Amino acid sequence: MSRITLHITRGDAYSVQRIETFEVPYREGMSLLDALLWVREFRDPSLSVRYSCRSANACKECMASVNGKSGYLCSIRAVEDTEVLIAPVPGLPLIKDIVTSIE
Amino acid sequence: MESMDLQTDVLVIGSGAAGMVAAKAASAEGAKVILADKSVVGRGGATVLAQMTVAAALGEAEEDHPDIHFEDTMKGSRGLADPDIVRAIVDRAPELINELEGYGVKWARTAEGIRSQVVAPGHSRRRCVYVDILNTGGATSAGLRKAIWKEPNIKRLKNVMITKIVVQDGRAAGAIGFAFEQMKPVRIKAKAIILATGGLTEMYARNSASANMTGDGFVLAAEAGAELRDMEMVQFFPIAHLHPPLVGLDPIMWDPFRYKLGGRLLNGLQEEFMDKYNNEVSGVYTAARDQTTFAIFSEVKAGRGSPHGGAYLDFRMVPEQKLKEAFGPVIDILARQGVDLTRDMVEVAPMAHFTMGGVKVSPRMETTVPGLYACGELIYGMHGANRLSGNALTEAFVTGRIAGEQAAGAKELTPWPDAIFDDEFERLRQFWHPREVQRDDVPMLALKRELQHIMWEGAGPLRTEDKLAEAERRLGELRGRLAQAALARTSSYALSLVEKLELDHMIKLGEAIVAGARMRKETRGAHVRLDYEQTDEQPASIRYVLTNEHTWRLDSVPLSGSSSAAKGVE
Predict the structure, then answer these.
(1) Which of A43, B55, B162, B478 has the most CB atoms around its CB within 10 Å?
(2) Which string of DSSP letters, residue by residue, matches B6-24?
(3) How far is A25 from chain B (nearest CA, A)?
């Protein structure tokens, strides 16, 4: 079965940041946000991600650093059999995992 | 744990268009306002996703009058709208369009400089304003956010979930909840409270709204003693995207293109079918949402669906240049994902889209609980059994405005004892942590998915007694498992704690919808009973009250609608 590998930065303002790796089954047309929600549903519900509109690129809540570049997780398609680095957007106050404080 | 203790004149809960307009209006009357949202202020909810139009009888594109908007809305409602609420909204719609323009919302204008107004199914005039391209909701949210941010009287609270409206001496006197970016109990004393939390579309497996639209406000209102109406009336949006999977696009974005370009709906055999149901002429979009939803699912049920269980949407007959002009940047987003509309059809199918029932309010947006107001999608009365395209933001703007003006008139704080706060937090602690666990012993997202499937299969667009009874049984079973689920203690971004409360609300509302759908033994608008195809001569509204035992008590209230309006003859 094809999959994607997520290396996700974990931790909050009170702990040391670390990277955790999750293998996610690939589904045609899935976004990176879909992959993170799969992790929350099937591997680790404590993974924090901020999201609202989910696929419309409208609420602009799911901003994260993806392979070192800022983007919206709902609007980036996952690519089969690749590895992706997902981290909080640098320069914004960290809340937890990839969630930062935004207005 | 240290708590956040606040006091204000008006507390607004929810910050879509209705909540932001309400906050602004109350502040303009001189009130101090707290605007709280479960999400980031002005970003969650339905408004940011609204792509289409806002209906207002401006009379710029052609002669129009609020009376005609009233008639169209009443007719569209299949006999179930509350005429006093419809009247209150349509009369002030033009005023609010101008107010929003003052906040920088740039309604599209014609070459002559008047506002560009288009027609939408069910509206008999060119009445609907919009912001190009597909940016009505985005521009509205941005304009209102800017207007709110400038207001020194408005304090914004993001990522705060309210769990209880405090009613003291028969009057809404404040609210209790928690902030979850950094976990902290919140207590707010207020002279008046406005609920603006939107709908409950997240209860359905296929839905077109934001993930946080879990119907919290219906439960908060009902628990405070307010009356709800017609909760069984959930609108399904007929031509929401189904296949192939796309990212970064709103699933309901096909609709405006179908208006503009006359996209054709085809069944699995690639035959047109809308003419069989609504005499809709090929390429001209006239059927209302309830009718198209029924037509698509009837084809699927007859074995004539598209491969993924919907219908094909076909733009292949439209010249490439015209497609490019109409779709603008969307055509590139589609191309990057392998969709070429000159060559490919897409599949579409209905999605849960809007909650037409809701909190019963007066034309002054008062709920049946003194001091507690409601506005926006949360209220009952504007849409009956079928909402017209363009009427949702109209409702949000005007009812938000009215609620803000009215709530600002509240004169006094009603004191309430600390014990209410302590009891609520004890209840939450027991609800979240029935046992001490290191990690959540059931993922809340998995339970949500189950709930969404129960509702879709049992209380979706086409309903029967057997399926509804099965949904009721499954909801009861899910409620038991939810109660047992123990969550880990979290101090930062406590998403699971929010999700367990949302699930509790959604199960409660699922029970309401199923009970109402079983009670309504007729087919009317969005509520289709395959086992009761007739539309009753005498329209009736279903009233829902939450008892002290946390069960729903329903009764039927006859309305004085005419039967021709009820049947939606157009």
Answers:
(1) B55
(2) EEEEEEEE--SHHHHHHHH
(3) 16
